[in-house]
Amino acid sequence: MDQRVAPKPEIETMPRGRAALRFVRQLAFALISIVVLIIIFGILNPRFLSAINWFHITQQVAVIAILAIGQTFIIATAGIDISQGSVVALSSMICAIILVDTHLGMVAAVALTLLLGAVVGAMVGGSIVVLGVPPFIATLGMLAIAMGAALLTTNGTPVFGLPDGFQAISQGTILGVPNMGWIAIVIALIAAFVLNKTRFGRYTLAIGSNAEAARRVGINVPRHLLMIYMLGGIISALAGIVYLSYTAAAQPTSGGNYELYAIAAVVIGGGSLFGGVGTILGSVLGALLMTILKNGTQLAGISSYVEQVILGIVVVGAVYVDNLRRRLR
Amino acid sequence: MSASGTVSSTAALEVSGIEKRFGAVEVLRGVSMQVAPGEVLGVVGDNGAGKSTLMKVISGVHRADAGNIRLAGHDVAFRTPRDARDAGIETIYQDLALADHLDVGANIFLGREPIRRFAGLIPMLDERKIHGEVAALLGRIESHIPDPSARALDLSGGQRQAVAIARALYWKAKIVIMDEPTAALAVMETENVLKMARQLAAEGIGVLFIGHNLVEILKICDRVMVMYRGRKVFDVRCADTSQTELIRYMTGYADAETNKTEGEYQ
């Protein structure tokens, strides 16, 4: 056969170099933004930089980071979960009611709440996989369902009087770091392992990248998506438990906007709403950025109403930048 | 083009009397054909002749209404594409079913990742094995893929074909179906893909090469079969035919004549 000028195969000496570079580039944006925000808020109010404030930031970031981790898996499949905030509210209500009104104990309360999260996730996943409802609508429905259910549990009144031991989740520390911070770190390490080192994680990215290709190689896409949303539900419930300990009282209307923080965190951390991409470290950095924004605006004396406006702009802006990134490559 | 001389007595794939209808439309009307190990069989025909449906029956996407399929001498019945793939029938799709965001190795092993136990307990991907095998494979097919850690997204059309072909090679396919593999490629890349089709054959795989470009088909195939309106109307060694003759069969001109004499056309 005619051998014209065939391009010479260039064998790269460092095959992992490109992947590492990609990873760094993905995180650079979040890291630089974090540094810039720290400088700005530090100037606006020096208390922002105090040790006690960073203790609070660690507590606050834990809930958002845990939610962002669940959101990372879902967004990696090209899905989205906008019900996280109200699932946090529902699960913290249920957990509080079990703790206060029954004698089942803390372990059972936590276990049952996580089970509730799995059921919620199965309902969302089921409507996506079985009924063919798009993830946005399925979780929009769940947003309303969970919020309504949270209000129904006590007819809209908060639950107080949690046992002292339960406070340890948020108030206790190990090596100066609040326990809820450690919970987020452990969840992040497990999630990073699952996403990068296991078949489950690989299939998650493959489905988000090209669901048809995944199906053709024999991956059971519906079953996998169902598991992803159940996992997402469990993680939201866990965030609800941690949040309950942090706020020391269950409010049926709590958890507002948490899904927005989580979605913004994932996208800022390099995840794409088109699917196939996302890292746990990136999402955790994104969560840190969102927490700094929330905490810093408060300390700078900016009203929480304005903070909400900023949150909305950040979400839209982050997704716009994500689109640009994909178009320009 | 060197036709491989290693055509063994057992066909790699043998189908006989395949019929398939969708509602009232008879798409395949009793197709029989075979491919030997190490042979590249061109499959040509106009749009709607039934090529794609035949390939989908062979690759387990559709179930035939009648007829049977023998793979390396054994009767097979596929319920899903997965069954066909597990049995050794690999399809390289026109739209190249790769997960764009995964790297070359992840795509070659997608759905069949090797697993090792982390701490003797937790199953995790055996990345070292994946990367080792991929490096060897890419060398074997002279793929021109510079970096196995490149994402499918960063590859050219020809390189993407190479990934799909590497997948077929690694999983020891008996039959590889290439569905218009050169349709969207530049000239240079087309050459590479044609070369790879021959390479697959050289490894003892039976290759079904579906295409429209008769120059290409005559150049790289050992044999060519022509489909027309759900039937195989011509089956010939490439050395013994010409573009003009193939076109006569593809357009039904020759078929009409034959069928008239057989008295079964209308």
Automatic annotation (TrEMBL), chain A:
Keyword set, alphabetical order: Cell membrane, Membrane, Transmembrane, Transmembrane helix
Membrane topology (UniProt): Multi-pass membrane protein
Record's keyword annotation contains Transmembrane helix: yes
GO CC, alphabetical: plasma membrane
Subcellular locations according to the entry: Cell membrane
Pfam families: BPD_transp_2
Segments crossing the lipid bilayer: 23-45, 57-76, 82-100, 107-130, 136-162, 174-195, 226-248, 260-293, 299-321
GO MF term list: transmembrane transporter activity
Protein's UniProt name: Monosaccharide ABC transporter membrane protein, CUT2 family
Source species: Acidiphilium rubrum
TrEMBL record, chain B:
Location of the ABC transporter domain: 13-254
Record-annotated membrane-spanning stretches: none
UniProtKB keywords: ATP-binding, Nucleotide-binding
Single GO molecular function: ATP hydrolysis activity
Presence of the UniProt keyword Nucleotide-binding in the record: yes
Keyword Phosphoprotein: no
InterPro entries assigned: AAA+_ATPase, ABC_carbohydrate_import_ATPase, ABC_transporter-like_ATP-bd, ABC_transporter-like_CS, P-loop_NTPase
SMART domains listed in its UniProt record: AAA
A Pfam family matched in the record: ABC_tran
PANTHER family, A to Z: CARBOHYDRATE TRANSPORT ATP-BINDING PROTEIN MG119-RELATED (PTHR43790), SUGAR ABC TRANSPORTER ATP-BINDING PROTEIN (PTHR43790:SF8)
Protein name, per record: Monosaccharide ABC transporter ATP-binding protein, CUT2 family
Organism of derivation: Acidiphilium rubrum
